[in-house]
């Protein structure tokens, strides 16, 4: 288990992380979210033992994280950290040796992952000759080649097409099933919703929301109603509690301040004889994120 307890980090007079607390168990995927400058990168660096001048405690399976523990951690950075002049083989060997692996084991595992990602022909190619998407695959391989106990993924799908996003998702879920502790960070909230059971949102280093995703969505007052059929859009929009009504080619989306207004909307359309769908959905994580972060910045 990864435990972050009462962690505070200053850069001079600037508080980058303020009394941060969370736990991630084996086989959990935890979302650490926030705008640029929120404190995520500082948190990653403290977890990896790159920064140690903070107050509080960070432990992995009960032990303080230092250089004796870093071989158990994998990190896929948002900015690519590949050496462009190296070949794929040399690059992965370099990272593997740094993590305490022998070259024979590294090459065996590299061959497996190159085949898994359908890029076997690039083994002897230089990194600079690869597309952005294939470079991202190599960076991902470098972060998991040593089978880490803790894996930090910062914007893992950067530069990937939809087919390769699905491939990455498959691998990430396999790692979860094997018990890997995973911290997932992305500005794409739909990706966070796919993976994360628990999450935490940082604003200017301070926690503004944390908990299980299901509970966060259940407790968030704003709800959406999806309606298929013909309705009087202006009439619905004029009802108490209705924030907005939008329409795409197939359906209407009615945004509500609170679920208590659902019966009023249902009553307003009850006389329509061509309604084929009416259902209530939670607000998306993207909507919740924008609302929570926006409110926090205004305070």
Describe the structure using short key phrases.
alpha/beta; Rossmann fold; Alpha-Beta Plaits; 4-stranded antiparallel sheet; 10 helices; 14 strands
Précis, in short:
With 299 residues, this protein is α/β, with parallel strands linked by helices.
Largest sheet: 6 strands, mixed
Broad shape: globular
Return the CATH architecture of the largest domain. Answer: 3-Layer(aba) Sandwich
- Low-pLDDT parts are none
SS-based class: alpha/beta
Distance between the termini: 34 Å
- What is the fold named in CATH at topology level of the largest domain? Rossmann fold
* CATH C-level of the largest domain: Alpha Beta
Strand order of the largest sheet: 6-7-8-3-9-10
How many runs of DSSP E, i.e. beta strands?
14
Radius of gyration: 23 Å
As a percent range, the share of strand residues is 25-35%
Layout of secondary structure:
Layout: E1 2-11, E2 14-24, E3 29-34, H1 40-47, E4 55-60, E5 63-64, E6 73-76, H2 88-98, H3 103-116, H4 132-144, E7 150-154, H5 162-177, E8 181-185, H6 189-195, E9 198-203, E10 206-212, H7 213-219, E11 223-228, H8 233-237, E12 242-247, E13 252-256, H9 262-269, E14 277-282, H10 285-298
Parallel strand pairs: 3-8, 3-9, 6-7, 7-8
Antiparallel strand pairs: 1-2, 1-4, 4-5, 9-10, 11-13, 11-14, 12-13
Helix pairs in contact: 2-3, 2-4
What does this structure look like?
The protein is α/β, with parallel strands linked by helices and 299 residues long. The protein has two domains: 2-217, P-loop containing nucleotide triphosphate hydrolases (Rossmann fold, 3-Layer(aba) Sandwich), CATH 3.40.50; 221-282, 2-Layer Sandwich (Alpha-Beta Plaits). The chain is built from ten helices and 14 strands. The protein has a six-stranded mixed beta sheet. Helix 2 crosses helix 3 (103-116) and helix 2 runs parallel beside helix 4. The longest helix has 16 residues, at 162-177.
């Amino acid at each position: 288990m990864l435990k972050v307890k009462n962690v505070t980090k200053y850069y001079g007079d600037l508080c980058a992380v303020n009394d941060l607390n969370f736990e991630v168990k084996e086989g959990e995927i935890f979302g650490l979210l926030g705008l640029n400058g929120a404190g995520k990168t500082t948190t990653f660096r403290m977890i990896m033992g790159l920064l140690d001048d903070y107050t509080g405690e960070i432990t992995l399976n009960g032990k303080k994280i230092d250089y004796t523990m870093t071989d158990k951690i994998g990190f896929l950075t948002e900015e690519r950290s590949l050496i462009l002049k190296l070949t794929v083989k040399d690059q992965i060997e370099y990272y593997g040796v740094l993590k305490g692996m022998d070259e024979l084991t590294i090459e065996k595992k590299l061959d497996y992952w190159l085949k898994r990602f359908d890029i076997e022909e690039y083994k002897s190619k230089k990194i600079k000759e690869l597309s952005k998407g294939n470079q991202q695959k190599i960076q991902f391989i470098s972060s998991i080649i040593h089978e880490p106990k803790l894996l930090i993924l910062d914007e893992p799908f950067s530069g990937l097409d939809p087919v390769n996003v699905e491939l990455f998702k498959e691998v990430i879920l396999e790692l979860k099933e094997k018990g890997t502790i995973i911290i997932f960070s992305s500005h794409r909230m739909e990706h966070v919703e796919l993976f994360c059971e628990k999450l935490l949102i940082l604003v200017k280093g301070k926690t503004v929301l944390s908990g299980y995703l299901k509970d966060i969505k259940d407790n968030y007052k704003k709800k959406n109603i999806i309606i298929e059929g013909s309705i009087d859009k202006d009439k619905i929009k004029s009802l108490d509690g209705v924030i907005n009504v939008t329409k795409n080619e197939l359906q209407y989306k009615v945004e509500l301040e609170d679920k208590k207004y659902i019966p009023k909307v249902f009553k307003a359309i009850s006389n329509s004889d061509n309604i084929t769908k009416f259902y209530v959905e939670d607000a998306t994580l993207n909507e919740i994120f924008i609302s929570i972060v926006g409110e926090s910045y205004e305070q």
